[in-house]
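Pair request: fold both.
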Amino acid sequence: MPAKKLYLIDALNQIHRAYHALPELTNSHGVPTNATLGFVTMLRKLISEEKPDYCGVVFDPPGPTVRHEEYAGYKSSRPETPADLREQIPWIRRIVEAMDIPIFELPRYEADDVIGTLAARAEEAGIRTVIVSEDKDLLQLVSDKVKLLTERNQRYLYGPEDVENKYGVPPRLMTDLLGLMGDSVDDIPGVPGIGPKRARELLQTYGSLENAVDHAGDLAKYKYGRNLAEYAEQAHLSKRLATIHTDLPIDLPLEAMGVGQPDVATCREIFTELEFRRLLDDYVVEPERAEGDYRTVANSAELEEAIITIREAGRVAIKLQVDARQPMRAQIVGVGMSWEPGGGVYVPLAHQGLGATNAMRTDECLRLLSPLLVDGDVDIVGYDLKRDLITLARHEVVGVQPQLDIMLASYVLHPTRQSHRLSALASDLLHVRTTQLKEILPDRKATFDAIPIAEATRYVAERADLTLRLAIVFDSELEAQPGLGALLADLEMPLMQVLAAMELRGIRIDTGYLAEMSSQFGERIETLQAQIYEIAGEPFNLNSPKQLAEVLFDRLGLPAGGKTAKGSRSTKAEILEALAPDYPIVSQILEYRELSKLKSTYVDALPGYVLPDTGRVHGSFDQAVAATGRLSSSNPNLQNIPIRKSTGRQIRRAFIPADGCLLMTADYSQIELRIMAHLSADPALQQAFLDGIDIHRATAAQIFHVEPQDVSYEQRDRAKVINFGVLYGMGPQRLAREFNVSLAEAKDFIQRYLSAYPRVRDYLEATIDRARAEGFVTTLLGRVRHLPELQSGRPMVRSFGERIAVNTPLQGTAADLIKLAMVNLHARLAKLGLRSGMLIQVHDELVIEVPEPEVDRVTEVVKQEMEGAIELDVPLLVEIRVGANWMDAKG
């Protein structure tokens, strides 16, 4: 029978390794989690792959140890444990205990000593021990029965021969080696002038530290020999400090160390709180499915009865079940409703196949439901309701005014939460598992209408029920934070209605123009390929960075400018742009890349998004994505249509209005700089905006000490970079790269800027200090973003947190401002009975479709609503243009 295996884990060593290996991670409440996740992942992998018979986790005790008592300088230069790492250690201990693995710790003795003693006890019992640590001090314990497992670069198991091959001495002499050469990690002094090589030679010659010291006189002609004699006592002390105790009063409780089953409930509670969803899915037994009284509505009479009950309840969660994710293409398959936690109904409307018995036709169901949804007597709640509003509007149910969208509630309350999906919210907040669609779909290609009605009832009614339960949870949170409650009710919920109207309307696309552009791009791409291949001497894969690097740097001998993270020579755009002026092939490659990306991403892709019924693209504007409050766009990303280069700008020509209409663009001018002027109350910055002068010219005059009329184009451009760079936390290193100047010159530019606008400097410093003290920042409209990064032990992460602390009140306020303007503008256009409507939002810009007779009136209304959305100490300015397509309107 093979000997059983005991695995002893050096806890703090592995925790530090995980902390430095993983990027900064937090849950939505700002609790740091990277070390915890890394350690738990390591532990699970170890148990799964190594299959130990016994296991123990050994911690260092708080406070000084016997080595500190003997030598005050022991580990004295070690930095203090970072606060965000220290905060994770109690979580790790809780998880280890929940996984039913014993923890060992002995006051006044380090984890190494406890590991040494347990390993000695195991060896006496005939048990093989594997120590899991990166600490070389533990190599002294290695024997035929004790191994050291490290994973710094790759998993490696040290035996006695491995130790001797690497360090030149057997494990039993590792303490002698450390005694002679010292250990800077633990501040063990050793003997001055004796390094690893000399220490190995002495031990190979004399067999031990003591014998080497005894023969120090023989080596007196050498400096190290004289040092050995002079520092003999220090050498003996160093060896004692390096020697691990193996005889502590600790038993080896093998029965308790057997690898057993974790406490599932406790693990689930911890992993849920830390938001380790993959662990919940992959390791811990799934939570119980949501339980409820879910039933199918069989006919219109039962639906009418349910509606009466709903009106008495005063609140209902609605879930439209459709057959496609894109709401402009979706057909309603059924409707789920819940008005009491733990219960729900499903109204099947369009199920297909054998045994499908639909309650009624869709139009009849909506005729009965419509008054309930639009008369305002019942609070309507739901999840991602924008999709449902679009689908209902397509079925002529308009005027629904939902009271609460739980996706938006989660986003407003916890903008950095990893996921606002219904299943994630139910798992985190209700501790239940939702039924997944893939569990009930008969196959991948099937749509929801193929699902048996009994299973469909469970799925849809459950979602309505969980939505209602989550609404109750969020009610309490929003009541406790009235500012965020107001932000949700007065801004995000009304905006949802505006975005639904924009998506319903869509924007017209000139597919013929795009087809022509695609042909032109294709011809130019072929020409560029031929030219590049001719210079290179043979064809190659232009889209392969490896092959491109070989052609440019090996075959053609161009200077390589940098490397990728994996060590390959980089062919990134910034590297090639630096070479382009001197090498025509590089210019051609850059043009090839640009045209290929534009063709595949936009020119050829956009026609595929056009809905045949409308001839328009109906993209999605997503509210619950960016932590700053900015909207994002998808399917397609209409906010990412190129603008910087003329070739990209041509794509915007394909976006056209309806016949008899024009496109209007309304763009806030320098909105974030104006917000900075308001927040900082800097008199010079404010005065520039009050006087209506060019802010970049004014800044250039300030920092270059010239009259405004004498500012050169280059000075204005540099001032513009600095103006916006300060908002985004641009440091001198990046500014030096932008300006191609020295670091000292870049620092001087920033200092001159801050001297010109001293209140800006004061505001930036005060904002960071306040964020560090309070843990969060807010926008003018009360949006909150928590910043756990400011408490990080890593300077780089703290710097990132400081940039976010500065940027969020500016970018977040700008995002809130245009959202508010959109809500007000939408209402005003409707009130005036105008046919104009918003189509696209691109951060600070709106694109509006305007019938030609309404252009003057809408220009006036847009200017009033956007410039008057909120009151600042400086005027808001909106630039409005009109054209026959988006490019012409943008100017």
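--- second member of the pair ---
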Amino acid sequence: MTVRSIVLGLLLAMGLCAFTYYNDWVIEQNSLIGGLLPFSVFGTMVLLVLLVNPLLWLLRPRWTFGPGELAVIVGLGLAAASFPGSAFSRVYSPMMVLPAHWLPTTTSWQGAEVLSYLPGGSSRLASGHVRDWPGFCRRLAHEAADASSAAHDLWTTLDDEAQAMIRQVAQEGHAADSQQRRMLAAINAVLPQDGLFGAAAIEAAPLPASADALLKRYGAGTLSADQIEKLNRLVLATVFSEHVSPAPPGRGVMLLGGRHDPAVTDLAISGAPSDQRVRLAEIPWAAWWPTMRLWGGLFLLLATASLCLVLIVHPQWSRRELLPYPVVRFAELAIARQPGRRLPDVAYARLFWYGLGAMLLLHCINGLHAWWPEFPLYIRMRHDFSALMDLFPNALKVPGSWGLYRPFIFPSVIAFSFFLTTEVSLSLGLSMFIWTAFASVLVANGISIRDSSSEGGNEALILFGAFAGMALMMLYAGRRHYVNVAAAAVGLRRPDTPRYCAWAARVLILCVALAPLLLRTGGLDPVLGLVLFVLMLLLVLVLARINAETGAFMIHAGWVPVAVMVSLLGNVAIGPTPYIVLALASLICMIDPADAVMPQLANAMRLLDRPDALRPARAAPWMIGIIVIGLAVTTTIVLSLHYNIGMTETVGWWVREQVSHMPFDRQTTMIWDLTASGQLETSVQTSSLDRLWHIAPRQGALGWVALGLALVLICTLARLRLPWWPIHPVLFVFWGTFPSIMLSVSFLIGWAIKKAVVQLGGARAVSQFMPLMVGVIAGELLSGLVWISIGAGYYLFTHGLHPPVYSVYPR
């Protein structure tokens, strides 16, 4: 480790934070990160070892970068290779702004009064906020004659039809749904009215201390329209506390509580005129700060907890279980260099240059064809076997089965198979075939497979059960180490346990305790906040394990925490207000875990753990510093782009048109389902541990989770007891997901090639072919970096024309 390696590593990390979003969603090129083998980091490494080092050698040999320095540069770069891509910045700001933009044109949201259930949102009454309509109507009608009462003030502002309906409900003791909607509409129509409640009624109402600021401004006559509505709702809920619930407490869940503001929300969507650029100081930071504190704080706690988990599992995974870490193994082979050599050791094998040259040629030809379709040469990497579809009609109904009929071939995936055991590469290769066969049987019997990962469909529950099984398997395999870490964390002497593991466990416990408290400021019950955070940690932990075992550089979980919680706890136990907080947290931090923070940190820690680099205890502070500073840099850049260019130009279609609708669409469905079953008021009033009494899993949900769990545990047991068993349990956390659709055929080809090499030449032949595989991966990384650079140059020199997109890896 040297000062220059630290400086270059920090520059690489900050460069990712500054330019990733611009490259991905403004220029709209192949992602700078795009997964767990980021072009920007590993492509830079290949450039340093193949181009920069030889040039430095010509000037002075001792100026070349050593393996330890390269490891530091790459490791620090990986620490920033999550949140600038898909993990946070892609979703955070759109989710804060766009739902309010869609609300005026989405009648279902308006009918359900979704913003009334949002903490800090609308002050309008929603149907779930009135506990007892007959009691409310009786009291309102009875006290209306008292001229000094709040009931009188409210009654006199209602129209004659609403008054007659209130008297009818009070007499009959029952309110039909149509009557409830009509009375709600009448009350909501007068809530924004200035002076709705007289001074006598407001003074008589025992308003909470939190209303003091509103009361002062009320006395001074300086309340805004939103504040008037908020005060009136507060008086209504206080006076009629037995019948009307207050607005959900909390702040920061959405920008301005989901309200429009031309200078804050509308400008972020449309962008400023080209001749009126918005400077950093002119961005409405005060409006954004509550959401940054909540969601940025949650992501920082998740990243810190992920780093702690990496420190805890690192000795077990790398030294005891000897996991292959294929991504790290590739980097180690690419940077290993004997003293006195100008190139890495692998570059002295001809096969390396054959693989490198073949990939550069392949992507040069196909890249030119993407830019100029009339270019005569093209090497097909996707093949069409759709004529076989008619042979398997049920398979056509399985989501994702198209990946088998029109498979992609990714040379880097084939190459990574040489870094894996044959059972792992075979399992990954068969994953989509086995999933299609399994799901075809279910579809043929009329059993639903997938809604979406955010809806908690059967496939998502199977995958969640498989994740839980993988976590149990990990705990069992490292049980002695983890018990020692727990003992060391409480101060017991454990000589075999590194001190950094004990400190990591303590900080992990602190993060797990702080996350529910932070989410409580956003209006989420701490019990649900704790469950949410634990599920997030489960997800990133298993993703890190998959990458460490398989080298799959594109991984999706196929489930998100909120969907699993709703499926296993039920609508009543969750309720519409906690749901929206849970949904936003899941979408912002987990909707696209392709760049998940823990796998990147796990690879970085494994690469840095060498005598000439940074040991774990020294690497951890650098990593957390990069995450904290980098998140601030990324958020600043993203907001600057939104306010200057607009979200319509800087947010991808999937996030803009799909993801931004997801939480409120699902919340609307939940509200109508609860209303139809007569349980809406109960779900709104349920809090804390009372939710335990209302747990009602969706029909069949526990069975699907148990199936995924059982498949992983049975497969693990078979591996331990049957020497001939060919399947690794990683199959059941990989199957059916988008990476399985895209990569399974390539893994199967890689397994077949490696199997043939082993059969013909044994282990020695595999080691002889390894330089070829390193060259293939290096060639694809260089190709991706070159085309990204060409596209960026084209965009700048043409003053904003979007270049054709050529993807080396799936985008």
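Observation on the second member. The longest helix spans residues 738-797.
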